[in-house]
Design goal:
By secondary structure, the protein is an alpha+beta fold. Helix content is 19%, strand content 31%. The chain is elongated and about 130 Å long. The termini are far apart.
Length: 362
């Protein structure tokens, strides 16, 4: 009789096969995890690159326009503007006001110590009259201003009255009626003009013949800042009307800015070449005329958290990030356990010429 028994796999062979299979699965898992980490890092790098460039381009586009229509040598330096939005006055008149400060300047940089800087820009949108006019008469009781010509002024244009006698001071109000026959601009308190207080209200009571009037049209008065690791933009006029700020780009964690001054520090003053980059804001008309450019630095964070080994500190970033103007203080590198070390960063910077200041009328 023939023995038909067949030999199968022994238990040892099965165990060996299982171990080999498990090792293969473990290897494939490690390869997948490493590939996924690489993909996330690549995607995060691309996102930070795109976000940083968009943020820089958006700010640069507005800053290049700054000073348009207001870069007048005699008007600059009047400081914080007196203005009104029903029913509130600016802080120059009412210290308890919640209206944002508006400074007559092409660019205003606000430093906040170790916190990110903010930068405000201002320019007019009037395409018909960008040169200032002259005040020939002023009637506060009737909210009327007589000017040297009404050409270029339109109803609902915002205008700026600049006092050139004594301490410079400027007032923003809205034109409600243009009267060409008498060369008069009316600034009446009507529902369509919330910028005009009744009967001139608490605005400065007089402007002399020869003082300036600038047509702002519908001006852009915009502030860029960093909030919760996002680039934020705030429009002062829309803010007064109740609109909220807008977040533009995620992953921007620090903003630094400096004025490029032709002030003779390290060079020759007023020769058209930037001599110094500084955070000190110009205050006088002469200093504003020396402003030629703005230097910007942005720090963008790659949104991939790189977890450290157990018990170790993050080492994705171990050194401070710098730009031409110094160090970004947003990174808390003095603290070894700082979570900021668990991310990588990209630095973006540029120098933006202020063409409206360079080409301004003398």
């Amino acid at each position: 009789m023939t023995d038909h028994r067949q030999s199968g796999l022994s238990l040892v062979e099965l165990l060996v096969a299982v171990v080999i299979g498990l090792l293969g699965i473990l290897a494939m898992t490690q390869v997948y995890l490493m590939s996924e980490q690489f993909n996330r890092s690549t995607a995060g790098e691309g996102s930070a690159q795109t976000g940083g460039l968009i943020a820089l381009y958006t700010m640069e586009r507005d800053i290049r326009m700054s000073g348009y229509g207001i870069a007048d040598s005699t008007a600059l330096g009047c400081g914080i503007v007196d203005w009104y939005y029903e029913p509130k006055y600016s802080k120059t008149i009412d210290a308890s006001s919640t209206l944002p400060n508006i400074t007559l300047s092409p660019v205003a940089i606000t430093t906040n110590g170790s916190n990110p800087d903010s930068i405000s820009i201002m320019f007019t949108t009037s395409s018909e009259r960008t040169m200032p006019g002259r005040i020939m008469g002023f009637n506060a009781a009737d909210s009327e201003v007589t000017v040297d010509g009404t050409a270029g002024f339109r109803n609902n244009d915002l205008v700026l009255l600049v006092n050139l006698t004594g301490t410079p001071r400027c007032t923003m109000t809205k034109v409600t009626q243009v009267l060409p026959a008498t060369q008069v601009l009316q600034m009446l308190s009507v529902p369509t003009a919330p910028n005009n207080p009744p009967s001139w209200g608490s605005f400065p009571g007089t402007y002399a013949n020869g003082d300036l009037i600038l047509n702002l049209g519908n001006p852009v008065i915009r502030t860029y800042s960093i909030n919760n690791n996002k680039l934020r933009v705030t429009d002062s006029l829309l803010q007064a009307a109740g609109s909220a700020a807008s977040d533009l780009v995620d992953g921007v964690v620090d903003l630094r800015a400096q004025y490029g001054m032709d002030n003779g520090v390290g060079g020759v003053a007023n020769d058209g070449i930037v001599d110094q980059y500084t955070n000190s804001s110009p205050t006088t008309s002469e200093q504003w005329q020396q402003l030629l450019s703005v230097r910007l630095g942005l720090l963008a964070r790659i949104g991939v958290y790189e977890k450290p080994a157990t018990g170790a500190n993050c080492d994705a970033t171990t050194t401070a990030r710098t730009w031409s103007g110094g160090t970004f203080s947003r990174l808390d590198l003095a603290t070894l356990t700082s979570e900021d070390r668990c991310y990588r960063y990209r630095v973006f910077e540029t120098v933006i010429p202020l063409r409206n200041m360079i080409w301004r009328a003398s």
